[in-house]
Structures are given as C-alpha cells and as structure tokens.
Amino acid sequence: MESQIKTLLQAIQYFSDEQVCIDTVAEMRWPDGPTCPECLAAEPYYIKTQRRWKCRNCRIQFSVKRGSIFEDSPISLTKWLPALWLIVNCKNGISSYEVARDLGVTQKSAWFMLQRLRLVLKAKDFGAKMGSSDGGEVEVDEAFVGGKLKNMHAAQKVRYVKRGGAHGKAVVMGILDRESRQVRAKVVPNVKRETLQNEILKNVKYGSAVYTDQAVGYDNLKSRYIHDTVNHAECYVKGRVHTNGLENFWSLTKRNLAGTYVAVEPFHLDRYLDEQMFRFNNRATKDNPLDDSDRFLLALSQVAGKRLTYDELTGKMERTQA
Q1: Would you state the torsion angle of the CA atoms of residues 280, 282, 287, 289, taken in this order, to the nearest 10 degrees?
Q2: What global pTM score does this model have?
Q3: What pLDDT is attached to residue 166?
C-alpha cells in the first residue's frame, strides 16, 4: 500500500478498485509471491479475467481470499478493506448499522463482517509475561459488564442471575504492564481467589510489583509478588499504588459497549475485548508513534490462517481456528 494513504478518504479512494485490493492483500499474505494453498507450489499463474491464480502443479484455482478471514465471502474486498480501516481506527468503535449504511450491505452482513474482523484483531499469542522479576509494576483489576437488573425483561433477568457474579453481570479481568503500556483482558467465570490468581500466575512474572484493590480474591499474592493494595472506599491513589491505568481502559471499553454497541451478549464479549485491546495496545505514543495506516497494515497482516463461519459465531457448532 502506498505510503501516502493516511486518511479514511484516501483509503476509500485507493481501495475503490478490486484489483488494487487483491494486490494489496496478496502482497501482505505472500511477500515472496503467491503459493498454492494445497500443494504449496510457488509461482502459480494469474488468470486476469477471473481474478484468481491457478497452480502449475496440482492445477487448482484459488483466490486471495482463500485461507483468510475473507474466505467464502461474496462481499468484495472494496468493502472489506474500508471496514477493516474503520474498526481499527474508530476510537469509540463502529456499529454494524453504521457500516451497513456506509458500505451498502445489510445490517446482518455488516455484523458478520465486523465479528470476523474482530477475530483478525485477536492476539494469537501475548508472548512473554508482564512485569519483571526486579519489581516491574503491573496493575490488576476486574470489571463487571452488563445492564442493570431493574431495567431487564423478566426472562433476561433470570438468565443473568443464573450466571452469577455481580448481579448476573459478565466478569472481565484486566492486567496492565506500566512499562510497556500494554493491557490484557478476558472474560472470567467469577471473581473467586482461584480464578483471579491463576490468571495472574499465568500472565505476570514472579517478583513483579502487583497493584490491586482490596478485593479478597487478591489475598496471599505476597508469596510470589510485591503486592500492594489501594482501598477505593478511601482513595484511588496511594503513591505508586493505584489501578488508574486499567480504569482508563475500562472507561473506554464500557463507553464503546454502552454507547456504540448498546447490547452485547456475554457469549460475544471476548471479541469486543479483542477489538478494544488491539486499538489500546497499538495507540500512538511518544516511543511508538503509530498512525491509522500503521494500525490498518498491522491488522491486514493478520488476516491469513483465520476463519469464522456463521454457525461458529452463533454457537450452532464448536468454533475451530487454524
């Protein structure tokens, strides 16, 4: 993609040609040239009239969409790529209704597109643990996502109460590394000590300084970490001890869920967290001055090897992922 593509208007103009979109995705997927998805043979020849390649070895034909999040989609890449630009760069998210109006597709198609793109934004592997053995600072906090019981329909109220937690709300746990300014968040089943501390053990290095509130689920962390707490009933900051970095992330997340997406089922909540984490972890900083184009190219480089069908998305069959 040309380096001068910096704005949404420029992106829409640039990706208005399907062949340009194909060339862009192909360059990101196969920097050394296309390879056959069946036999992995190199140098297939391009059938210009059909906009697909044909393998010289096994003779199969394949498009740039095959083996990517775009596979089996009748929607052209001239709509997929602007949708990807929007979801990675709109700070408050973008609703399926708005995408449907902007791109000229149905709301159901737009919702399916956005859910597939959220899978693209999901980090395959977070890599190393957060913090450091010499006291690297890490914030840990949990949030509760869901509507108020008094505003729910009777049938919905019963379903949420059965889920447990804070008045039937979904529980989300977050961990923020102050040094890298990166956050990890996921839906957890409850706020029991075993659940919360297992996540800390899996994601934070021993010897790190872990800052939490005074919830009982964080007791006994001092055996492996430098653990200190802040009592939110009295204050929110006690020197270096606070969870305000994570509170910022929760504020952005809840603003999106309440203001843009309005009603998110707990079954889909992890995908919306993946979207918010991608934007938050790839925001522009002094040390890493990313712009809209950088975020778009990063997301585009992750489209291969991921697949999400409508049946998997709606829970009609178990989700499989390459």
Answers
A1: -110
A2: 0.89
A3: 65
pLDDT at 233 (0 to 100): 83
Q: Is 93 left (phi over 0), alpha (psi -120 to 50) or beta?
A: left
Q: Rounded CA gap, 220 and 264, in Å?
A: 34
Three-class secondary structure of residue 306 per DSSP? coil
**For residue 278, how many other CB atoms are within 10 A of its CB?**
21
What are the C-alpha distances in Å from 63 to residues 32, 80, 85, 105, 304?
17, 15, 22, 22, 13
Counting residues of the chain whose pLDDT is more than 70, the rounded percentage is 96
Average pLDDT on 4-27 reads: 93
pLDDT per position as a tens digit, 201-230: 999 999 999 999 999 999 989 989 999 999
pLDDT at 321 over 60: no
Q: In whole angstroms, what is the distance from residue 234 CA to residue 212 CA? A: 14
Per-residue pLDDT, 80: 97
- Helix (H, G, I), strand (E, B), or coil: what is residue 210? strand
CA gap 33, 298 in Å, rounded: 19
Tell me how many helices (H) and strands (E) the chain has: 11, 8
E-strand ranges in the chain read 45-47, 52-54, 61-62, 137-145, 170-177, 182-188, 209-213, 226-230
* Separation between Cα atoms, residue 57 and residue 70, nearest integer Å: 25
Helix (H) or strand (E) segment spanning residue 217: none
Q: Are 14 and 20 in contact (CB under 8 A)?
A: yes
Provide the token pair at 310: 């409508």
Q: Give which of 289, 322, 320, 282 is closest to 303, Cα–Cα.
A: 322
* pLDDT (mean) for 230-234: 87
CA distance 162 to 155: 11
Angle between helices 292-300 and 77-89 (to 10 degrees): 120
- Token readout for 43 is 């140098």
